[in-house]
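Incident log, structure service

09:12 report received: a user says their structure output differs between two submissions of the same chain.
09:20 pulled the input from the user's history:
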Amino acid sequence: MLHAVSGSFGRQQSHLFPWAPVCLGVGIGIYFSLMQEPPLWGLGLCAAVLLLCWLVAVWRGCHRGSWVSLVLWALTLSLTGAVVATYKAHAVAAPVLSYRYYGPIEGRIIAIDKSASEKMRLTLDNVRLSRVPPARTPVKVRVSLHGPDMGTTFTPGDVVITTGHLGPPSGPVEPGGFDFQRHLWFQQLGALGYTRNPMLRYKPAAIENADAALRLYTIRRALSEGIKSRMSMREGPFAAAIITGDRSDLDASALEILRASNLAHLLAISGLHMGLLTGAVFAVIRLCLAAIPAASLRLPIRKVAAVAAFAAALVYLGISGASVATQRAFIMVSVMLLAICLERPALSLRAVAMAALVILVTTPQALVGPGFQMSFAATIALVAVFGAIRDRGTFLRVPKWLSGVVALLVSSFIAGAATAPFGAAHFNQVSQYGLLANLLSVPVMGFVVMPGALLAGLLAPFGLEAAGLAVMELGLAWILGVADFVAGLNGSTRAIMAPSVHVLPLVALGGLFLCLWQGAGRLIGLLPICAALLFWASTERPTVLISETGRLIGVLGEGGRALNKPKGDGFSAQVWLENDGDTGDQAHAATRAGFAANDLRVNLNGVKLVFNAANPEKIDLAQACATNDLVVLPRLTDFLPEGCQGWSGADFLTGGSVAIYETKTGLRYENSRSRQGDRLWVPKPRKRRQ
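09:34 re-ran on a clean worker, output below:
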C-alpha cells in the first residue's frame, strides 16, 4: 500500500510547486481558527519535533520524491504558515481603546472615504487624545463626520482637530460572524467614532515631510479627483475606482446594481485590468519599434516591450492602492514578462503559486478575506481549465472568427462558477444572470474602457487627457446600462443563507484538488465539494439573536426573523437578515410578529425570554428568576440577581452578541467572545462590579 501511495505522489513530481502556498495557507488557517494564541514554546516544540523527523528521514535514506519526504515538506510549510501568521499578528500589535471616550481628538489625515451611511470618514494617525497617555493611545483612529459644516475639503496630510466620540472596535454582530476586531487589528485601527462638531484644519498638509505611503496616497487622491471632475457624476467615480481604487464617491445604488448583476468584480483592480493594461503597452511598444527599421534590426524589441510593460504594471500597482487582487495580478504579470526577457516559457500555475506565496508571507491575514479567496479561486480555475484545453487542443476547435466569443463565454462561466461559493458565503447572494452581464460587459471593458484609460494616460502630459476619458465614459455608461438592465430582471439575485465554518475550507480543498492534482485522481476533489454543499444545506441558524448593545432582538419563525424594533442597531439587523438568506429589511422584519420595541416575551422550549429596554424595572425579577426565565437587561447599571438566568449590560460588554439555539435537549447559548476565543485582537473581559 505504501508503495502505491509513493507511486501516486511520484506522478505529481513536476507539479508540486503550486501546492506550496496551499500548505502555507493551511498553517495560516489553523492559526486563525485557534481558540487561544499559540505560545512560542508550543511553536518551538512543533519545530523541534519536525526537525527530528527530518533527521530520522535523512538517516533512513528517504529520497526527495518519497511520500515521507513530501509529507514532511507539507508539514514544514504548514508550520511556517502558522509562524508567519503569529509573527504578523504580534508585529502589528498596537493599543486599542478599551472604553468609550468623549473629548478632543487630534490627528493627521492618512485616508478619506465614506461610511455606509454616506458620511465622510477620516482615518487619522499621530493621534492625540485628552487624558489618554501616549502608550495607550491608538496608532490610528477613524472618525465619521456627522455634524454641520462638513463640506470642508480636506487633503491627506492635514492635521485636524475636533471634539467627538470614540470607542473600541465592535465584535461580531452574531457569534461566529465576521470578526471586525481581527480585521481592524491588522490595520492598527484602535478606535472608531464620530463627531457632530466641525472638523477643523489645525495644520495644512506638509507632504514634503510625509512618508512614501502618504505621498503616494496623495497622488492617488489627486488623480482620482481629477478624473471625477472631468467626467459625469455616475461614470466618474466608476472610472476612479478602476484606475486608482478610490470608491469613496461611488454611488450606493450603482454599487448595488453591479453586485446584483455580478459585475462588481470590474471594480476590483485585478488580472483583467492589469492584463489589459500591460498587454496594450506591450503591443503598442512592440509595434512602434517594429515600424522603425533601425530599432527592429538592432534591439530585442520583445524584451524592450516587456520591460516597458513591467514599468506600466508597476506604476498601475502604485496608483491603484495595491489591493490583494492587484498584487496577485502584478506578480503574475511580472513573472510572465520576466520569462519573455529570459526567453523561457511562462508556467501559469507556477506564477499563480508564486503570487500566493508572496501575499501569504507578507499579509497572511488576507487568507480569510473575500478578496484573496475570490481572486485566487477565479485565477486558478481559469489557468487550470485553459491549460487543459491547450494541452488537449480539441475542446475549442471552432471557426477562428468565433473563438474569441467562445473563449469569453467559457472564461466567464468558469470564473463565475469558481467564485460563486465564496461570493455567496461572504455576501449572501448570487446573481442569476451574471453570465449574460459579463458577456455584454467584459469585451467593452477590454476594448473600450482600458484602452481609453491608457490613451488618457499617454495624452495627460500634453493636457489632452479628455479624449481618452471620453472614450472611457462611453464604455462605462454601457456597462452601467447593462448592470441596470440585468439587475432589473425578475429574480436577478437569489438570497443565500450564511454557511457554517466548515463549508468554505471544504470547497477550497475540493477545488484545489480538481485544479492542481494530475490525472484522473483529481475527481476525488468532488467529494469535499459535495460534503460542503450538504453542510451548507443543513446549516442551523440561531432561533434568537441579541445584539452587542442588548437592545435589538431577532426571533426566527416560519415567516422569517422577527425584530423587536424598526430602527436602531441597523447594521446588526441587516447582517442578521442577510445571513438568514432573507431579502427583507429591518422595518419589514419588525412587523412580522408584532413585538413591541421595548417589551418582548418569547417562549423557547418552555423557557420564557423577557426583555424591556426602556423600563427594565417593570420586569418582575423575582418571578422571572423563580420560573427560570431568560432576562435581558441591556443597561450597564442593571445587574441580574445571583442565580437568575440571562444577560445584563455588563455581560454584553464582556461577551458581545448572543445566539440561542433550540435543540432536542434544550437551549444552547453562545456569545461572540466564546466563538472568538482568547486572541490578541479580542478585548480582555473586565471584572464585573455590582
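09:41 both user submissions now match this output. Likely a transient worker issue. Closing.
09:42 reviewer note: The chain has 24 helices and 17 strands. Residues 1-6 have pLDDT under 50 and may be disordered.
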